[in-house]
Each structure stands twice: as C-alpha cells, then as structure tokens.
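HOLO CASE FILE
Compound: uracil
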Amino acid sequence: MEWYVEAGVDVLLEDEPIDRFLEKPPVPRKKATQVASSSTAERLAQKADNSPRPTATIRPQATMPDGAAVEMAKSIASKATTIEALKQALNEFDGCNLKRTAKSLVFADGNPSAKIMLIGEAPDKDEDIHGIPFAGRAGQLLDKQLAAIGLSRETVYITNVIPWRPPGNRTPTPQETEICRPFIERHIELINPDIILMLGGTSAKTLMKTNNGIMQLRGKWSEIRTENLTIKALSTLHPTYLLRQPLHKKLVWQDLLKLKQHLES
Ligand code: URA
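Model generated. Tokens follow.
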C-alpha cells in the first residue's frame, strides 16, 4: 500500500475490486460485409456473445469530447447569477473527468464580500477530504502569510482554478484546465474583487493566458480579463512549493509587501 501511495496511486475508482483475469478478451468486430452475409441465427448468437457480462458497477464516465465539455461549461457557468448557483452548477456538471476520482467539490472558503480573491491551482488530499481550499499544510503556511500582512480568511476569499483534486496531486492537464476555466472566470465575476492574488504557476498561467513561468510573472502587477470584467492581479509562488523550497519565502514576502502597500495606498 505504501508503495502505491508513494507512486501517487492513492484513490479508489470503484467500491469493489474487479478481477480482470476473469474477464473474457474482447470479441473482435466482424467486418461489415461478413455481418451482412451472416444468417439471423449467427447474428443472434453473436449478439448474445457480445451482451454485457456481470461485472462491478462502474460509475458513469465523463465521456464528452473536450470541446463539447468546454462549450457546456461555458453555457452552464454563464447562467449562474449567484455564488450558490455557481456551486450548484459545478455539482451538477459531469464534463470533467477529475470529478470521477475526487471525493469532494472544493468550491471556496473565506468572505464572498472580500475585496481580495486568492486563486490556487487545485485541491490536494486534505482539501479533498474536507472540501475546503487550502485546508492542509500549504493552507497553514498561507494563513501565516496572510496574517503577516494583516489579512485572514475572514478578510479574503479563497478558491482554486480546478475544483476537484487531480489523482495523486498531478498537475491538471490543459484540457482539464480549459474545461474548468468558464467556472473560475464566472466565479471571479460573481465575487468581483478589487485584487486577485494568483498562487503558483498554474493559476497565473491559466488566468493570464500566458506560457511564461511563475518566476517571470511573480511580483508584477497585471490584469485578469474575463468576458465581462478586468481585474488588477498579482501572482506569487505557491505555498506548497515553499514547503519544499523555504529559501524562496523571501520572494513571497516581497510580493506580499507589494500587495500590502497597494491596499494601504
Ligand atoms: N494547493 C492548491 O493550489 N489549492 C489548494 O486548495 C490546496 C493546495
């Protein structure tokens, strides 16, 4: 088990194990001409052979092509006129495969009337368990960083680009990010903060639609443009990264001071 967890295999896809050795190999499809010339009896026999065999129940998959999923996400997200409606829309949306393996929808934490919105990458294991963004070690560090400039979860609003935990904490794929983009952009519009603080490269690159790395982007004022809004934004290093590279805390401190100065000006 430990070996699996270290390899990132730390989620169960089914409630029951499936013994793949008991499954028959797939029956090769007959060519159209052969099927057309076979007798009714042969076709019925073939149909019987292809009929579903009893296996463990499999939950419905997100089988929508990515383009269709993005279009559906855009349509659903744009119709949400309140934060609650957006959360409900995400709960009902089945176009993102990450929802299949996640335990919870990790929607947001903090104060929806806050003027500062923090946007991270995606939930990790602790967030998936509790359904709250930045609920684990990275969140504890984030709370300390906020406190250092006189902020807290009561005075900011916190969410992520991706609301479901990618299995094994892998980086979300570009397809997953594009499918979730309409929801985070609508989320921004509904909160309508004065300032957005993007935490980490995935958040900054996705929201600023750039391929530049976080070391180039961090600490510089920029703008995030959604369909209906333009919001002043700053990016900084992700707290999870700082847990591995504590020497870079000084860079984040510089970025936070920049944010503080702006709030006081
Ligand atoms: N990392 C993130 O980007 N977001 C969380 O909520 C937790 C860890």
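CASE NOTES: Residues 31-41, 51-59 have pLDDT under 50 and may be disordered. The radius of gyration is 23 Å.
CLOSED: yes
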